[in-house]
Amino acid sequence: MTSLKNCPAPAKLNLFLHVNGRRADGYHLLQTVFQLIDHGDTLHFELRDDHQIRRVTELPGVPEESDLIIRAARLLQADVLRRTGALPPGVNIAIDKVLPMGGGLGGGSSDAATTLMALNHLWQAGLSKEALMALGLPLGADIPFFIFGQTAFAEGVGEAMRPVKAPDCWYVVIEPGVAVPTAAIFCSEHLTRDTPVVIITDFSSHLENRIGLKGFGKNDLQQVATKLFPPVAEAIEWLGAYGDARMTGSGACVFSAVATENEADAVLAKVPAKWKAWKAKALDRHPIIEKL
Ligand SMILES: C[C@@](CO)(OP(=O)(O)O)[C@H](O)COP(=O)(O)OP(=O)(O)OC[C@H]1O[C@@H](n2ccc(N)nc2=O)[C@H](O)[C@@H]1O
Ligand SMILES: Nc1ncnc2c1ncn2[C@@H]1O[C@H](COP(=O)(O)OP(=O)(O)O)[C@@H](O)[C@H]1O
Protein backbone atom coordinates (compact mmCIF):
# COMPACT_ATOMS: atom_id res chain seq x y z
CA MET A 1 0.00 0.00 0.00
CA THR A 2 1.42 3.40 -0.98
CA SER A 3 -1.39 5.77 -0.02
CA LEU A 4 -4.24 6.25 2.43
CA LYS A 5 -6.86 8.77 1.32
CA ASN A 6 -9.86 10.28 3.13
CA CYS A 7 -8.73 9.57 6.69
CA PRO A 8 -11.14 11.23 9.14
CA ALA A 9 -9.93 13.44 12.02
CA PRO A 10 -13.16 14.04 13.94
CA ALA A 11 -13.82 16.76 16.50
CA LYS A 12 -14.58 16.15 20.18
CA LEU A 13 -16.91 17.94 22.55
CA ASN A 14 -16.22 18.06 26.28
CA LEU A 15 -19.76 17.31 27.57
CA PHE A 16 -18.57 18.60 30.95
CA LEU A 17 -15.12 19.58 32.15
CA HIS A 18 -14.31 19.80 35.84
CA VAL A 19 -11.03 21.20 37.14
CA ASN A 20 -10.27 19.30 40.33
CA GLY A 21 -6.79 20.54 41.15
CA ARG A 22 -3.37 21.44 39.88
CA ARG A 23 -0.21 19.31 39.79
CA ALA A 24 3.18 20.56 40.98
CA ASP A 25 4.25 21.02 37.33
CA GLY A 26 1.33 23.42 36.71
CA TYR A 27 -0.81 20.98 34.70
CA HIS A 28 -4.42 20.73 35.82
CA LEU A 29 -6.26 17.65 37.06
CA LEU A 30 -9.50 17.27 35.13
CA GLN A 31 -12.57 15.09 34.89
CA THR A 32 -14.34 15.22 31.55
CA VAL A 33 -16.35 13.27 29.01
CA PHE A 34 -14.83 13.44 25.55
CA GLN A 35 -17.64 12.96 23.02
CA LEU A 36 -16.61 12.06 19.46
CA ILE A 37 -18.80 13.66 16.75
CA ASP A 38 -19.14 13.11 13.00
CA HIS A 39 -17.69 16.47 11.91
CA GLY A 40 -14.01 17.11 11.35
CA ASP A 41 -10.95 17.41 9.15
CA THR A 42 -9.88 14.90 6.48
CA LEU A 43 -6.27 13.87 5.84
CA HIS A 44 -4.64 12.19 2.83
CA PHE A 45 -1.30 10.35 2.94
CA GLU A 46 0.90 9.40 -0.04
CA LEU A 47 4.30 7.74 0.36
CA ARG A 48 7.33 9.36 -1.33
CA ASP A 49 10.45 7.84 -2.88
CA ASP A 50 12.69 9.74 -0.46
CA HIS A 51 12.51 10.14 3.35
CA GLN A 52 10.97 13.62 3.53
CA ILE A 53 7.80 14.34 5.47
CA ARG A 54 5.93 17.17 3.73
CA ARG A 55 2.63 18.97 4.19
CA VAL A 56 1.29 19.71 0.73
CA THR A 57 -1.61 21.95 1.84
CA GLU A 58 -1.24 25.55 3.04
CA LEU A 59 -2.62 26.11 6.56
CA PRO A 60 -2.80 29.86 7.21
CA GLY A 61 -1.14 30.77 10.53
CA VAL A 62 0.49 27.35 11.00
CA PRO A 63 3.95 27.00 9.40
CA GLU A 64 4.71 23.48 8.19
CA GLU A 65 7.46 22.98 10.80
CA SER A 66 5.13 23.68 13.75
CA ASP A 67 2.10 21.79 12.41
CA LEU A 68 1.10 19.03 14.82
CA ILE A 69 0.62 16.74 11.79
CA ILE A 70 4.27 17.12 10.74
CA ARG A 71 5.56 16.93 14.31
CA ALA A 72 3.57 13.74 14.93
CA ALA A 73 4.87 12.14 11.72
CA ARG A 74 8.47 13.03 12.64
CA LEU A 75 8.05 11.51 16.11
CA LEU A 76 6.86 8.23 14.62
CA GLN A 77 9.62 8.32 11.98
CA ALA A 78 12.26 8.73 14.73
CA ASP A 79 10.69 5.92 16.74
CA VAL A 80 10.83 3.55 13.73
CA LEU A 81 14.47 4.51 13.10
CA ARG A 82 15.37 3.86 16.75
CA ARG A 83 13.70 0.45 16.81
CA THR A 84 14.65 -0.89 13.36
CA GLY A 85 17.74 1.08 12.39
CA ALA A 86 16.08 2.10 9.10
CA LEU A 87 14.11 5.19 8.07
CA PRO A 88 10.59 4.57 6.75
CA PRO A 89 9.66 6.13 3.39
CA GLY A 90 8.77 9.82 3.27
CA VAL A 91 5.18 10.97 2.96
CA ASN A 92 3.14 13.83 1.47
CA ILE A 93 0.26 14.82 3.74
CA ALA A 94 -2.71 16.84 2.48
CA ILE A 95 -5.43 18.18 4.74
CA ASP A 96 -8.98 19.42 4.20
CA LYS A 97 -9.17 21.72 7.23
CA VAL A 98 -12.69 22.24 8.51
CA LEU A 99 -12.29 22.65 12.27
CA PRO A 100 -11.57 26.16 13.60
CA MET A 101 -8.28 26.62 15.46
CA GLY A 102 -8.53 27.44 19.15
CA GLY A 103 -12.08 26.17 19.01
CA GLY A 104 -11.98 23.62 21.85
CA LEU A 105 -12.87 20.92 19.30
CA GLY A 106 -9.42 19.32 19.49
CA GLY A 107 -8.74 19.84 15.78
CA GLY A 108 -4.94 19.96 15.94
CA SER A 109 -4.83 17.00 18.33
CA SER A 110 -7.21 14.98 16.16
CA ASP A 111 -5.11 15.70 13.05
CA ALA A 112 -2.00 14.51 14.90
CA ALA A 113 -3.75 11.38 16.19
CA THR A 114 -5.03 10.47 12.72
CA THR A 115 -1.49 10.99 11.36
CA LEU A 116 0.00 8.62 13.95
CA MET A 117 -2.65 5.94 13.32
CA ALA A 118 -2.48 6.22 9.51
CA LEU A 119 1.33 6.19 9.33
CA ASN A 120 1.60 3.33 11.84
CA HIS A 121 -0.49 1.41 9.27
CA LEU A 122 1.20 2.69 6.06
CA TRP A 123 4.72 2.22 7.43
CA GLN A 124 3.76 -1.09 9.09
CA ALA A 125 5.46 0.32 12.17
CA GLY A 126 3.68 -2.11 14.50
CA LEU A 127 3.12 0.18 17.49
CA SER A 128 0.32 -0.83 19.85
CA LYS A 129 -2.51 1.59 20.58
CA GLU A 130 -0.98 2.25 24.03
CA ALA A 131 2.45 2.98 22.51
CA LEU A 132 0.92 5.40 19.99
CA MET A 133 -0.99 7.17 22.80
CA ALA A 134 2.22 7.59 24.81
CA LEU A 135 4.09 8.86 21.74
CA GLY A 136 1.42 11.50 21.06
CA LEU A 137 0.89 12.81 24.61
CA PRO A 138 3.86 15.26 24.70
CA LEU A 139 2.43 16.98 21.59
CA GLY A 140 -1.00 17.60 23.11
CA ALA A 141 -3.14 16.48 26.03
CA ASP A 142 -6.06 15.45 23.79
CA ILE A 143 -4.05 13.25 21.40
CA PRO A 144 -4.22 10.04 23.52
CA PHE A 145 -8.02 10.33 23.60
CA PHE A 146 -8.33 10.40 19.80
CA ILE A 147 -6.05 7.35 19.52
CA PHE A 148 -8.05 5.62 22.28
CA GLY A 149 -10.82 6.02 19.72
CA GLN A 150 -13.97 5.83 21.81
CA THR A 151 -16.21 8.37 23.52
CA ALA A 152 -14.72 8.29 27.00
CA PHE A 153 -14.68 9.54 30.56
CA ALA A 154 -11.19 10.88 31.26
CA GLU A 155 -9.39 11.80 34.47
CA GLY A 156 -6.01 13.09 35.53
CA VAL A 157 -4.55 15.26 32.80
CA GLY A 158 -6.70 13.29 30.37
CA GLU A 159 -4.59 10.15 30.16
CA ALA A 160 -6.76 7.81 32.29
CA MET A 161 -9.74 6.87 30.12
CA ARG A 162 -12.74 4.57 30.28
CA PRO A 163 -15.22 4.12 27.39
CA VAL A 164 -18.66 5.49 28.08
CA LYS A 165 -21.91 5.02 26.21
CA ALA A 166 -23.18 8.57 25.84
CA PRO A 167 -26.70 9.37 24.61
CA ASP A 168 -27.41 8.77 20.93
CA CYS A 169 -28.21 12.40 20.04
CA TRP A 170 -27.31 15.34 17.81
CA TYR A 171 -25.40 18.50 18.63
CA VAL A 172 -25.74 22.05 17.37
CA VAL A 173 -22.34 23.77 17.45
CA ILE A 174 -21.69 27.51 17.09
CA GLU A 175 -18.28 28.95 16.21
CA PRO A 176 -18.21 32.41 17.87
CA GLY A 177 -15.44 33.57 15.53
CA VAL A 178 -12.61 33.93 18.08
CA ALA A 179 -9.61 31.67 18.77
CA VAL A 180 -9.07 30.92 22.46
CA PRO A 181 -5.50 30.06 23.53
CA THR A 182 -5.78 27.10 25.94
CA ALA A 183 -2.81 28.14 28.11
CA ALA A 184 -4.27 31.61 28.79
CA ILE A 185 -7.43 30.06 30.25
CA PHE A 186 -5.57 27.57 32.47
CA CYS A 187 -3.23 30.17 33.92
CA SER A 188 -5.97 32.70 34.80
CA GLU A 189 -6.08 33.75 38.46
CA HIS A 190 -9.87 33.61 38.22
CA LEU A 191 -10.00 29.91 37.32
CA THR A 192 -11.60 27.76 40.04
CA ARG A 193 -9.65 24.56 40.60
CA ASP A 194 -11.59 22.89 43.40
CA THR A 195 -14.60 21.13 41.88
CA PRO A 196 -15.06 17.95 43.96
CA VAL A 197 -14.05 14.74 42.20
CA VAL A 198 -17.08 12.83 40.91
CA ILE A 199 -16.90 9.23 42.08
CA ILE A 200 -18.50 6.87 39.62
CA THR A 201 -19.50 3.47 40.90
CA ASP A 202 -21.94 1.99 38.39
CA PHE A 203 -20.08 3.16 35.35
CA SER A 204 -22.05 1.97 32.33
CA SER A 205 -25.53 3.13 33.29
CA HIS A 206 -24.66 5.98 35.65
CA LEU A 207 -23.11 8.30 33.13
CA GLU A 208 -25.52 7.49 30.34
CA ASN A 209 -28.37 8.65 32.55
CA ARG A 210 -26.67 11.79 33.72
CA ILE A 211 -24.74 13.37 30.87
CA GLY A 212 -25.78 14.59 27.46
CA LEU A 213 -29.28 15.95 27.03
CA LYS A 214 -29.76 16.56 30.73
CA GLY A 215 -26.53 18.55 30.90
CA PHE A 216 -24.57 16.89 33.70
CA GLY A 217 -21.92 18.97 35.47
CA LYS A 218 -20.39 22.16 34.04
CA ASN A 219 -17.37 23.47 32.22
CA ASP A 220 -15.10 25.14 34.77
CA LEU A 221 -13.11 26.89 32.01
CA GLN A 222 -16.23 28.65 30.72
CA GLN A 223 -16.35 31.45 33.29
CA VAL A 224 -12.79 32.56 32.49
CA ALA A 225 -13.18 32.22 28.71
CA THR A 226 -16.46 34.15 28.56
CA LYS A 227 -14.90 37.05 30.50
CA LEU A 228 -11.89 37.22 28.19
CA PHE A 229 -13.87 36.57 25.00
CA PRO A 230 -17.35 38.20 25.06
CA PRO A 231 -18.48 36.58 21.75
CA VAL A 232 -18.33 33.20 23.56
CA ALA A 233 -20.71 34.51 26.24
CA GLU A 234 -23.02 35.88 23.57
CA ALA A 235 -23.18 32.54 21.74
CA ILE A 236 -23.92 30.66 25.00
CA GLU A 237 -26.70 33.07 25.84
CA TRP A 238 -28.26 32.77 22.37
CA LEU A 239 -28.06 28.95 22.18
CA GLY A 240 -29.23 28.68 25.81
CA ALA A 241 -32.75 29.59 24.65
CA TYR A 242 -32.93 26.14 22.98
CA GLY A 243 -31.46 23.92 25.71
CA ASP A 244 -28.45 23.51 27.97
CA ALA A 245 -25.72 25.41 26.07
CA ARG A 246 -22.11 25.32 27.13
CA MET A 247 -18.57 25.71 25.88
CA THR A 248 -16.37 22.78 24.79
CA GLY A 249 -12.82 22.49 26.19
CA SER A 250 -11.12 25.84 26.65
CA GLY A 251 -13.43 27.37 24.00
CA ALA A 252 -14.35 29.05 21.84
CA CYS A 253 -17.07 26.77 20.40
CA VAL A 254 -20.43 26.39 22.08
CA PHE A 255 -22.81 23.43 21.80
CA SER A 256 -26.21 22.14 22.82
CA ALA A 257 -27.62 18.61 22.55
CA VAL A 258 -30.89 17.87 20.77
CA ALA A 259 -32.66 14.54 20.34
CA THR A 260 -33.11 14.49 16.55
CA GLU A 261 -31.57 15.82 13.34
CA ASN A 262 -34.80 17.73 12.61
CA GLU A 263 -34.49 19.58 15.92
CA ALA A 264 -30.89 20.45 15.05
CA ASP A 265 -32.02 21.82 11.66
CA ALA A 266 -34.72 23.92 13.32
CA VAL A 267 -32.19 25.59 15.64
CA LEU A 268 -29.64 26.04 12.81
CA ALA A 269 -32.22 27.85 10.69
CA LYS A 270 -32.41 30.58 13.36
CA VAL A 271 -28.69 31.08 14.07
CA PRO A 272 -27.69 34.73 13.43
CA ALA A 273 -25.74 35.12 10.17
CA LYS A 274 -22.65 36.49 11.97
CA TRP A 275 -21.85 33.01 13.36
CA LYS A 276 -20.85 29.85 11.56
CA ALA A 277 -22.91 26.95 12.92
CA TRP A 278 -23.40 23.27 12.10
CA LYS A 279 -24.87 20.03 13.36
CA ALA A 280 -23.12 16.77 14.19
CA LYS A 281 -24.14 13.34 15.35
CA ALA A 282 -22.74 11.71 18.49
CA LEU A 283 -20.28 8.88 17.70
CA ASP A 284 -19.26 6.02 19.97
CA ARG A 285 -16.14 5.16 18.00
CA HIS A 286 -13.50 6.91 15.90
CA PRO A 287 -14.46 6.57 12.20
CA ILE A 288 -10.86 5.77 11.13
CA ILE A 289 -11.18 2.35 12.79
CA GLU A 290 -13.17 1.12 9.76
CA LYS A 291 -10.32 2.10 7.39
CA LEU A 292 -7.33 0.55 9.14
C1 LIG B 1 -8.73 21.84 27.65
C2 LIG B 1 -8.69 20.64 26.77
C3 LIG B 1 -9.81 19.68 27.20
O1 LIG B 1 -10.06 18.70 26.28
O2 LIG B 1 -8.92 20.84 25.39
P1 LIG B 1 -8.92 22.04 24.31
O3 LIG B 1 -9.95 23.03 24.61
O4 LIG B 1 -7.56 22.69 24.28
O5 LIG B 1 -9.20 21.34 23.02
C4 LIG B 1 -7.35 19.90 26.84
O6 LIG B 1 -7.14 19.30 28.08
C5 LIG B 1 -6.17 20.73 26.44
O7 LIG B 1 -5.50 20.00 25.46
P2 LIG B 1 -4.45 20.66 24.45
O8 LIG B 1 -5.12 21.77 23.68
O9 LIG B 1 -3.88 19.53 23.68
O10 LIG B 1 -3.48 21.34 25.42
P3 LIG B 1 -1.90 21.24 25.53
O11 LIG B 1 -1.31 21.75 24.25
O12 LIG B 1 -1.50 19.90 26.02
O13 LIG B 1 -1.64 22.31 26.70
C6 LIG B 1 -1.71 23.69 26.48
C7 LIG B 1 -1.51 24.36 27.82
O14 LIG B 1 -2.69 24.25 28.62
C8 LIG B 1 -2.39 24.03 30.00
N1 LIG B 1 -2.98 22.76 30.45
C9 LIG B 1 -3.40 21.83 29.54
C10 LIG B 1 -3.99 20.66 29.96
C11 LIG B 1 -4.13 20.44 31.36
N2 LIG B 1 -4.68 19.32 31.83
N3 LIG B 1 -3.69 21.37 32.24
C12 LIG B 1 -3.12 22.53 31.81
O15 LIG B 1 -2.75 23.37 32.62
C13 LIG B 1 -0.87 24.04 30.09
O16 LIG B 1 -0.48 25.36 30.43
C14 LIG B 1 -0.41 23.73 28.68
O17 LIG B 1 0.82 24.30 28.39
N1 LIG C 1 -2.84 20.73 12.21
C1 LIG C 1 -3.22 21.71 13.05
N2 LIG C 1 -4.49 22.09 13.11
C2 LIG C 1 -4.88 23.06 13.96
N3 LIG C 1 -4.07 23.72 14.79
C3 LIG C 1 -2.78 23.40 14.77
C4 LIG C 1 -2.28 22.40 13.90
N4 LIG C 1 -0.99 22.28 14.11
C5 LIG C 1 -0.66 23.18 15.05
N5 LIG C 1 -1.73 23.86 15.46
C6 LIG C 1 -1.75 24.91 16.51
O1 LIG C 1 -2.51 24.46 17.63
C7 LIG C 1 -3.38 25.48 18.12
C8 LIG C 1 -4.60 24.85 18.76
O2 LIG C 1 -5.41 24.38 17.74
P1 LIG C 1 -6.62 23.37 17.93
O3 LIG C 1 -6.17 22.04 18.36
O4 LIG C 1 -7.40 23.39 16.67
O5 LIG C 1 -7.47 24.07 19.07
P2 LIG C 1 -8.18 23.47 20.34
O6 LIG C 1 -7.14 22.73 21.15
O7 LIG C 1 -8.71 24.67 21.06
O8 LIG C 1 -9.24 22.58 19.83
C9 LIG C 1 -3.67 26.34 16.91
O9 LIG C 1 -3.93 27.67 17.25
C10 LIG C 1 -2.41 26.21 16.04
O10 LIG C 1 -1.50 27.25 16.30
Write up this protein.
- It comes from Duganella violaceipulchra.
- It is an enzyme of class 2 (transferase).
- Pfam families: GHMP_kinases_C (PF08544), GHMP_kinases_N (PF00288).
- Pathway: Isoprenoid biosynthesis; isopentenyl diphosphate biosynthesis via DXP pathway; isopentenyl diphosphate from 1-deoxy-D-xylulose 5-phosphate: step 3/6.
- Its EC number is 2.7.1.148.
- With 292 residues, this protein is of the alpha+beta class.
- The protein has 2 domains: 3-163, Ribosomal Protein S5, domain 2; 170-283, 2-Layer Sandwich (Alpha-Beta Plaits).
- 29% of the residues lie in helices and 27% in strands.
- The protein contains 9 helices and 10 strands.
- Strands 1, 2, 3, 4, 5, 6, 7, 8, 9 and 10 form a 10-stranded mixed β-sheet that branches.
- The mean pLDDT is 93.
- Bound molecules: 4-diphosphocytidyl-2-C-methyl-D-erythritol 2-phosphate and adenosine-5'-diphosphate (ADP).
- Adenosine-5'-diphosphate binds next to helix 1 and helix 2.
> Domains counted in the coordinates: how many?
2
Count the beta strands: 10
State the helix count. Answer: 9
Taken in chain order, the helices and strands follow as EEEHEHHHEEEHHHHEEHE
Keywords:
binds 4-diphosphocytidyl-2-C-methyl-D-erythritol 2-phosphate; globular; binds adenosine-5'-diphosphate; 10-stranded mixed sheet; GHMP_kinase_C_dom; 4-diphosphocytidyl-2-C-methyl-D-erythritol kinase; 9 helices; Ribosomal Protein S5, domain 2; kinase; alpha+beta; 2 domains; 292 residues; 27% strand; Alpha-Beta Plaits; 10 strands
